[in-house]
Amino acid sequence: MVMVPFLGLAFMLSQFLRSVPAVIAPDLRSELNLTAIELSSLPAALFLGSALMQLPVGVLLDRFGPRRTIAIFLLISAVGTTLISRAESSSVLALALFVAGCGIAPVYMGLIVLLSRWVPRDRLATASSIAVAVSGAGLLLSAAPFAWASVVIGWRETLGFVGLGAALLSAIVWLVSRDRPPGEMPEKVVPETLRQTILGLKYVLRDKRLYALASVASISVGSFLTTRALWTGPYLNDVFGLDMISRGNVILALSVAWLVSALFYGPLDRLFDTRRGVVSVGAISMALSFVLLAVNNSASVGVVTVLLVLLGLSSSFTALIFAHARALFPDTHTGRAITAINLFIWSGVFLIQVITGFIVNAFPADSQGHSPIEAYQAMFITLAIALIFAVFVYRRIEDVPPSKDIAH
In terms of pTM, does the model score above 0.90? Predict the structure, then answer.
């Protein structure tokens, strides 16, 4: 399929934009004279934009299809990225990040819709994990390559070029994408309005299983993205004194580990014939990684790199949560369930970033604006506790092994 690499590029762009603050966060803090709370609120604005757009995106995907929806929203992301590159104040930067977040809102959901039409349901988790792994290239590009480009030509100029690339990608996706496999006709139904979709959410919102799925999804994704996209850069700068290139190299290692994680998690549900079990082990492994980071007092960059790599290797199991949701809800309500979970995910990322900002800010910074190691240790242990709590909630719902997953 010609559209696959370009949709992969769109997914890569969304991951890139969610991750670049980690590299430039110390520079933003210094350039704009930001507190820890203000620093955390900036990338949080991007995730808030993605969260608020989830319900409208669900309607647009149903009414206009993934092709047109993704292409048009990529233009919005291009505008947001260009604004980021030109922002001279924290308020303008927050607005630009919010616009960029709105622009990338439909990419993952649109890809899930396409995969659900092109891939057998028992292989959805594997296909989704492969797509997530491919998108991991965006994480890689936002690490050492972005740090290098920022040193050579400046981070503003680099993001300006990314904005131009997003606009070009929008046109390509419009031209080459297809909403359905050849010969498959869409069902002749009247598209729902936003009001009808919101009212239709009552079915899934009354189901307690949704909140169990949403808790583990939002806290696991929120914890990882908050660490990867926001605090890893300041942590490495404040505690280990690393410059931008060195920070980028460590973040690159974390990103590669996450990419590898996405590949090996995908088939595990079929290998062990359990989704709940794989997700539970993954979340507990994440919690243990955060505990190790919290108790680490070594000044060795090598040690902290290994710990961050362990975090990355345990983190990419979100595709199995969506596969679990698809198996629990009838086909007529799967879209609403997935949209609701995605809404919780991006809302969770936003809240976790803001909360961790308060945690770090509770520890006074030194004269150079560096937060102490105790601030980050408190943050890591808080994330570990939240993950363990999410697992307990998640374990209360029934498992649906791939061997028993049939359409209903």
Answer: no
What six digits make up the tokens of 34?
Answer: 């930001």
In a domain, residue 285? The reply is yes
- Which residue is it, tokens 């740090």? 147
Number of domains in the chain: 1
C-alpha dihedral (87, 371, 141, 12), degrees to nearest 10: -70
pLDDT digits (tens, 9 = 90+) for 339-390: 788 889 988 988 999 999 999 999 998 888 889 999 999 999 999 999 999 9
Domain enclosing residue 392, as ranges: 3-178+194-402
> Minimal CA–CA distance to 273: which of 395, 122, 119?
122
HSE (side-chain half, CA atoms, 13 Å) at 215: 19
CA angle (274, 128, 63) in 5-degree steps:
120
Helices 301-314 and 276-295 meet at what angle, rounded to 10? 160
pLDDT for residue 305 is more than 70:
yes
- CA dihedral of residues 63, 66, 72, 73 (deg, nearest 10): 110
Spatial separation of the C-alpha atoms in residues 101 and 10, rounded to whole Å? 13
Cβ pair 362, 375 in contact under 8 A: yes
Distances (CA, A) of 291 to 237, 240, 255, 384: 20, 19, 20, 6
**Does residue 184 form part of some domain?**
no
Q: Is residue 186 part of a domain?
A: no
- Measured distance CA(312)–CA(360) in Å, rounded: 22
Backbone Cα Rg of the chain: 20
Q: What is the CATH number of the domain that holds 7?
A: 1.20.1250.20
